[in-house]
Design goal:
With 224 residues, the protein is an alpha+beta fold. It has one domain: 3-Layer(aba) Sandwich (Aminopeptidase), CATH 3.40.630.30. Helix content is 39%, strand content 20%. The chain has a seven-stranded mixed sheet with strand order 1-2-3-4-5-7-6, with helices on both faces. α1 crosses α3, α3 runs antiparallel to α4 and α4 crosses α5. The chain is globular and about 45 Å long. It starts with 7 loop residues before the first strand and ends in a 15-residue tail after the last strand. The structure holds coenzyme A (COA). The site of coenzyme A (COA) has 20 residues, from β4, α6 and α7.
């Protein structure tokens, strides 16, 4: 899909683009816990989405054929299967990076993953209040040197189009409360924060209704 003069959004395939997308992820999400697990983990993570049905894995390519952004979407409920399928991969990465145990977020994420694995945690606690089926925006990232050029907006537009193609009626995402830039971006793209009741620790849920759907159960109050 040709979106602007210099930007193209394409589906990511395993053969030719996986390494470039993993590289982009390491740059766009530098410092996030999953990048601390290393390039091998990020490759396996992205590959999991490419190989699973009903997902959206797209990359934004510039005029030099360079990957400058990417985004992932998957039907709500994906994370239990993802955590199960990648648990050994994660375990090996942790064993080879013992310093991670000193990272406070590591423990928070580990507990959440274990809860998800044993069925104590739902993907999106408020998903039942959204018009379904609902898709999670799992990740959206733009190369650090290329931000504020509307690449994120192009990717968001493509994710929403892809979700509609899958007959999705709503989108949901999680974002850290202190990620003010990302939250501003989501709000500019028409997303709204869910009510305070759906706040999980320092993570907020945002939602977006597709095709003018109404959702009375969710508050769109501003939680800034
Ligand atoms: C969030 C992110 C994807 C935005 O991508 P981007 O290509 O820079 O965003 P766009 O240029 O499309 O921005 C569209 C609008 O969103 C808002 N916005 C984007 N980045 C913003 C920032 N850092 N601060 C305030 N508002 C911002 C602005 O209103 C912007 O329009 P404007 O530039 O005309 O003011 C990018 O900053 C990023 O990759 N961040 C790191 C990864 C991340 O946090 N991802 C989200 C959590 S999964």
């Amino acid at each position: 899909m040709q979106l602007t003069k210099n930007l193209t959004v394409v589906p990511v395939t395993e053969d030719d683009m996986l390494d470039d997308v993993a590289e982009l992820h390491l740059d766009a999400f530098a410092g996030h816990l999953n990048t601390l697990l290393g390039r091998g983990y990020i490759r396996a993570f992205v590959k999991w989405f490419i190989r699973n049905k009903g997902t959206i894995v797209i990359a934004a390519i510039d005029e030099n054929q360079k990957v400058v952004g990417y985004a992932l979407g998957a039907p709500v409920g994906y994370s239990t299967r993802l955590n199960r399928d990648l648990c050994w991969n994660v375990a090996v990465r942790i064993l080879t990076r013992p310093w991670l145990i000193f990272n406070a977020r590591f423990w928070i994420v580990l507990v959440e993953r274990i809860k998800s694995l044993i069925g104590l945690r739902q993907d999106a606690p408020q998903a039942s209040e959204l018009p379904g089926p609902s898709m999670s925006l799992v990740a959206i990232g733009v190369a650090s040197a290329q931000r504020r050029n509307k690449i994120g907006q192009c990717l968001m537009h493509a994710i929403e189009g892809g979700a509609r193609d899958f007959q999705m009626r709503s989108l949901v995402l999680s974002v850290y409360e202190n990620a003010t830039a990302a939250r501003r971006f989501y709000e500019q793209c028409g997303w709204r924060p869910c009510s305070r009741a759906t706040k999980n620790g320092d993570v907020l849920k945002y939602y977006r209704l597709l095709d003018g759907m109404q959702c009375v159960a969710l508050s769109s109050e501003d939680v800034h």
